[in-house]
Structures are given as structure tokens and as C-alpha cells.
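User: Some background: our group keeps a shared notebook of sequences we're curious about, and every so often someone picks one and asks for a predicted structure to add to the entry. Today it's my turn. The entry only has the sequence so far, pasted here. Could you supply the structure so I can complete it?
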Amino acid sequence: MTLSRLIIRNLFFYWRTNIAIVAGVATAVAVLSGALLVGQSVRGSLRQLLFERIGATGATVATDRFFSEQLAHSLASAGERSCPIIQLKGVVVHEQS
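Assistant: Of course. Here's the predicted structure to add to the notebook entry:
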């Protein structure tokens, strides 16, 4: 008995099991492909939202202390606008919930 004949007989003898395995693999591939597409879509939406919020930001200065507004304006190049902002980390708690 050759190897190819053994494989063919095995496929016919265990046809129910093979169909279940093929269906399971097809379902897994469909789920993973869908998750990949949705993930890419969400990533693109978040990136677009980020760019809408930060606008045309050219440079940022980050520090753990406050700095003067004068420094923010002096860092702006000629013809560009400067906008100093404060970024704080915090937590909001609603006492009733």
C-alpha cells in the first residue's frame, strides 16, 4: 500500500471528522480575518480622531513642571502660532455610582 493510497482511504474512512475539522478551521479563519479588519478600521478611526484633535502640531515640549507662557511663545518660529497647554493626569469619580 502506497502512502497516497493510505491517505485517500483515511480521508474516506474519517470523512465526518474531516468535515468537522475543515468547518472549524474555516470558522477560525473567518473570525480572525474579521477581527483583523475591524482592528484596522478602529485603528484608522482613532488615528483620524487624534489628528483632528491635535490639529497642525509641529512640535511639543513636555516637562514635569510648569513653564512660562513667554517660553512657549519664544519657541514658536516666525509665522507660526504657539499655544501653551497643561496636560494633567487625573481620575474622575462619581460618588453615587
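Suggested note for the entry: Helices lie at 3-13, 15-54, 69-75. The chain has a mean pLDDT of 83.
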